[in-house]
Amino acid sequence: MSDPTKPDEPKRPGFFQRLFGQDAATAPAAPEAPVERKSWWRRLTEGLSRTSSKLGTGVTDLFTKRKLDGDTLEELEDLLIQADLGVETAGRIAGALSKGRFGKDISPDEVRAVLAAEIEAVLAPVAMPLEVSAAKPFVVMVVGVNGAGKTTTIGKLAAKFRAEGRSVMLGAGDTFRAAAIDQLKVWGERTGVPVVTRPQGSDAAGLAFDTVKQAQEAGTDVVILDTAGRLQNKAELMAELEKVVRVIRKVDAAAPHAVLLVLDATTGQNALTQVEAFGRTAGVTGIVMTKLDGTARGGILVAVAAKTGLPVHFIGVGEGIDDLEPFAARDFARAIVGLEEA
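Structure (tokenized):
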């Protein structure tokens, strides 16, 4: 038994401490295996799987052991319209498919290849990156209906601009909803970006004015302004959006330099009405299509491109910060019909 009057003798170093200079309990843990980061192509194909599955199954059912005749072409058009590609695009694809093949056997793979080529032809002219001009700050205003994903899109755009080395400031212009203000604050913290806010119920135009003014004074590269979600058929709310644009121009006559309309792919053909209404009110310059992973009607992007000719800058296929990417026509066209990466 040890004598309590004597100090404890130091313990003899354990084996691991003698070997490594530290106790095994505090030895560094073996590094965890890195989590595989999915490629954009994989995320895109998985996100569009509901649409591609519907189209792919329909094409296989239509063209397995069947000649290309009038009835088959009509059924194909119906399939494409149901996927929201639009009547015009469906007719164009059916016409392209019938050239030199009418009355002949045709395989589902050949049909999918023609589909992809025709869809790419529609999308290629509108697949344009969002170019940040020399204006400082470059003011981006984000508009759209309730629930389209505007605030999340703004956070993801802020992360992209920061990754490019640009300074960014956000304006929490959806002053109707406290949750929207809080959500933008979270994105600001996450991306290391300042967020200009006012109490819920404040004047949205005044918030926009303050944000652009502060960004000018701070020498900020990019300003992204959130706006309240509004239905395109609510005249008073659309008039308020016009007011926001007018007030911004008191700070910079050329602003906003980009007006991005966020469209929810799950809304289908209603997206065309939104483009028309917001284009008339806010002068939409480009489109961001979100929630393509939540619908079997992802073809609406093709219909919007064919109808409006507006640039499509980004598409979203998930909630992750990396699930918003610049739009590439060929990748989208091949993914939506279930073909492999080109």
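Residues 4-11, 14-35 have pLDDT under 50 and may be disordered. The two ends are 79 Å apart (CA to CA).
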